[in-house]
């Protein structure tokens, strides 16, 4: 699919863009089955471990995240590399060639306590260090969050601070007191049906609370950067998996 100019403008002005029902129920069912296998593998250990290029970040019975989950479930790349996903990413980055850095499975089981404080992904991309350059001058990175389960107000949805992206990198890691101000301010919480996708940029402030419902909430996260932006080595893909995106 192709984004309209209005959608691209919304991404850069508001900081995120929702594409509803991008993947079919049958596809989400396949992704869910892969996630079930990943969760079973993660449950075998109580601390972080690696397997086939995948990093399982585990803390006791809690699965914090599974990094480059395609290492143990390669078929997940079929969905991560769908033209429906890569097309919009390519348009937003302004490049027919993009580099994949992130392929993660995120789980929030009932009452497991998994939550993420307010942050910007630019912090994780090593903004301001020798490992990162904003090549296109617009952030050079797009994060894609695909709902594997319906995302509701109770099961740990992601909160976004609209227009926070316009402030650039805020160095929240050095000024953690700023995080509290976002919790008290205005934020948006998209409710997503399984198969819907949220795209957001590296400067968009976001966070999530724990799952207080009785059902699990799973999301499939893939992240892509402009070629040459990243020099950091990530589990499973080193400094990035280069992808040529066909133009429709």
CATH fold topology: Jelly Rolls
Helix percentage: 10-25%
Summing up helix and strand content along with how strands pair, one would put the structural category as: alpha+beta
How many helical elements?
A: 6
Which residues form runs of ≥5 with pLDDT under 50?
none
Computed over alpha carbons, the radius of gyration is: 17 Å
Number of strands: 12
* Alpha-carbon distance between the two ends: 8 Å
- Indicate the mean pLDDT: 96
CATH C-level name: Mainly Beta
Dominant shape: globular
| CATH architectural designation | Sandwich
Compressed to H and E, one letter per element, the order equals HEHEEEHHEEHEEHEEEE
Tally of individual domains? 1
Strand content: 25-35%
Give a topology summary:
Blueprint: H1 5-14, E1 16-19, H2 25-42, E2 49-51, E3 54-59, E4 62-67, H3 76-80, H4 83-93, E5 97-108, E6 116-119, H5 121-124, E7 141-147, E8 158-160, H6 177-184, E9 197-200, E10 206-208, E11 217-225, E12 241-244
Antiparallel strand pairs: 1-9, 2-3, 3-4, 4-5, 5-11, 5-12, 6-10, 7-9, 7-11, 8-10
Structure description:
This protein has helices at 5-14, 25-42, 76-80, 83-93, 121-124, 177-184, and strands at residues 16-19, 49-51, 54-59, 62-67, 97-108, 116-119, 141-147, 158-160, 197-200, 206-208, 217-225, 241-244. The protein has 248 residues and is of the alpha+beta class. The chain has a single domain, classed as Jelly Rolls (Sandwich), CATH 2.60.120. Strands 1, 2, 3, 4, 5, 7, 9, 11 and 12 form a nine-stranded antiparallel beta sheet that branches. A three-stranded antiparallel beta sheet has the order 6-10-8, with helices on one face. The longest helix has 18 residues, at 25-42. The radius of gyration is 17 Å and the shape is globular. The relative contact order is 0.25. It comes from Pseudobacteriovorax antillogorgiicola.
